[in-house]
Amino acid sequence: MPMMTVTPIPALRDNYIWAMHSEGHAVVVDPGVAEPVVRWLDDEGLQLAGILITHHHGDHTGGMPELKQRYRVPVVGPAGGHIRGIDRHVGEGDRVVPAPGFPEYTVLEVPGHTLDHIAYYAPGHLFCGDTLFSAGCGRLFEGNAEQLHQSLAKFAALPGPTRVYAAHEYTVANLEFARSVLPGDEKIEKALANALKIRENVNPTLPSSVARERDINVFLRTEETVVRAAAEKHAGGKLETGVAVLAALRHWKDEF
Ligand SMILES: [Zn+2]
User: Fold this and answer.
1) pLDDT of the residue at 82
2) CA distances (Å), 42 to each of 5, 16, 19, 20, in order?
3) What is the DSSP string of 50-74?
4) Catalytic residue at 56?
5) 16-48, pLDDT tens digit by residue?
6) How far is the CA of 26 from the centre of ligand 1 (A)?
7) Which member of 57, 117, 125, 149 is catalytic?
8) Can you tell me the distance from the alpha carbon of 210 to that of 213, in angstroms, rounded to the nearest whole number?
9) Is 130 a catalytic residue?
10) Cα of 42 to ligand 1 centre, how many Å?
């Protein structure tokens, strides 16, 4: 397999359109807008070869029709048929080679943020859209806490070195929330100081890694006694399950 590089193309307010490229060709994930992708391809002298979509939200799909028409490339995305322009609809366990010469990705169904949300995993790489962020997770717009809990567990079970290409730069705000859940947690404190420093120069704090998220992401740590205790204190009652802890944390974060 030739060397593949993954680059964030900043778009809209705080989105990253992740672009993987190898030997003159590029594949983009969730192009919410077309213009920054076109400019980046021109600057880098790359040819667009494919598009992957994780879920139906406009800031992940808005630029897809224009890119598809301009470069005549295939689009892979979630089943359901409600995103116009998808050529291949995929679901749990499907294998996807987005373009010749690119790695084979396994599709994970990860409902919660939306019901159609999927992620793309290949050894070393996870494109997780809005389901997992560094130190956070997506809002529950369509799914429930039980679905999100299961989706996050799929990510947490991936190998530690897997790079996490989340679709938004929310790291600092997420770590500030994490710090109020677990004041004095050394790894969270350190991650926050580090993220603030990176953002001073407007650099991306991503990708993260699965190992790092297991340490600093309270939404992946719902089975830990300290996290449960903090969620119970805030919710003002007993939380018997990891799902209940996740629901309480998500609710807390929504109001944070
Ligand atoms: Zn979304």
Assistant:
1) 82
2) 17, 18, 13, 15
3) EEE-----HHHHTTHHHHHHHHT--
4) no
5) 999 999 999 999 999 999 999 999 999 999 999
6) 23
7) 57
8) 5
9) yes
10) 27
Instruction: In whole angstroms, give the CA distance from residue 185 to residue 157.
Output: 23
Report which secondary-structure segment, H or E, holds 209: strand 208-209
CA angle 206, 129, 232 (to 5 degrees): 85
Distance 186 CA to ligand 1 centre (A): 30
Mean pLDDT, residues 81-93 taken together = 93
Q: pLDDT tier at 1 (50, 70, 90 boundaries)?
A: low
89 included as an active-site residue: no
Q: Among all chains, which residue has been given the structure tokens 């990176």?
A: 198
CB 234 within 8 A of CB 252: yes
Beta strands 118-122 and 105-109: pairing type? antiparallel
Q: Which residue of the set 21, 25, 56, 60 is catalytic?
A: 60
Q: What is the mean pLDDT of residues 62-89?
A: 95
Check pLDDT > 80 for residue 80: no
Q: What are phi and psi of 137, to 5 degrees?
A: -150, 170
Of the pLDDT bands very low, low, confident and very high (cuts 50, 70, 90), residue 75 is: very high
